[in-house]
Amino acid sequence: MSATRFSTAREVFAAFPSTERDINAPPSDEPPLPFLQRLRCSETPEDAVSFLAYALGRREAVWWAAQSVRLLCRIAVGQEDAPLGAAEAWVRDPEDLRRREALRLGMTANQRLATPWVALAAGWSGGNVGPSAQAVVQATPEMTPRAVRTAILVALATVSARDRSSRLQACIDIGVPLMSRDTR
Predict the structure, then answer these.
(1) Degrees (nearest 5) of the Cα angle 145, 151, 153?
(2) How far apart are CA 63 and CA 118, in angstroms?
(3) DSSP of 29-97, one letter per residue?
(4) Are residues 32 and 60 in contact, defined by beta-carbon separation less than 8 angstroms?
(5) 115 within 8 A of 80, measured Cβ to Cβ
(6) What is the pLDDT of residues 154-167, one digit of tens each?
(7) 128 φ/ψ angles, rounded to the nearest 5 degrees
(8) What is the per-residue DSSP string for 125-170?
């Protein structure tokens, strides 16, 4: 396997058509990391959050979202709510029962907060996302990255204007090392 999931930024855009709605910059043939670095220095550094959400594997993306939400919302270990705890539990052990629990908690929590979106990112990572085993709705590949993006941007909205840029850059810093890990 390769060191990264994608060879170029254009491949990320091709794999996830919603990137064109979520990222202002056009795709390029640059490798993902230089493209990401260019986005983080642009007038819309939030594009780097969106790009990372799509470029990372599902587990890495959910972990990154959880760590970013912890940073942005100042949630200490042991202080997480049930949705965030369920998402992190799924990352550590991605079995379907944990995924379904994260999905349930994400769907029933206040989605104006960031942590339910982290849970939804885990819950939408694959398999049946329907309300029951009888109502089968398959997850689409874009569901996890869109929930990851939403979680981080919702959390970022809680940060003061003075701290916004540095905290956004810190979130990107958390995600960059995860780009070199290749998973589903």
Answers:
(1) 100
(2) 9
(3) SS-HHHHHHHHHTSS-THHHHHHHHHHS-HHHHHHHHHHHHHHHHT--TT---HHHHHHHHHHHS--HH
(4) no
(5) yes
(6) 999 999 999 999 99
(7) -80, 125
(8) SSSB-SSSSSS--BPPTTHHHHHHHHHHHHHHTTS-HHHHHHHHHH
The number of C-alpha atoms within 13 Å of 123 and in the hemisphere containing its C-beta is 24
User: Token pair for residue 105?
Assistant: 């908690």
Structural tokens at position 50: 């969106």
Q: How far apart are CA 102 and CA 47, in angstroms?
A: 26
- Rounded distance between C-alpha atoms, residue 22 and residue 111, angstroms: 19
Paired tokens of 70: 């912890």
Q: Are 67 and 172 in contact (CB under 8 A)?
A: no
pLDDT, position 161: 94
pTM of the predicted protein model:
0.94
Residue 78 identity (one-letter amino acid): G
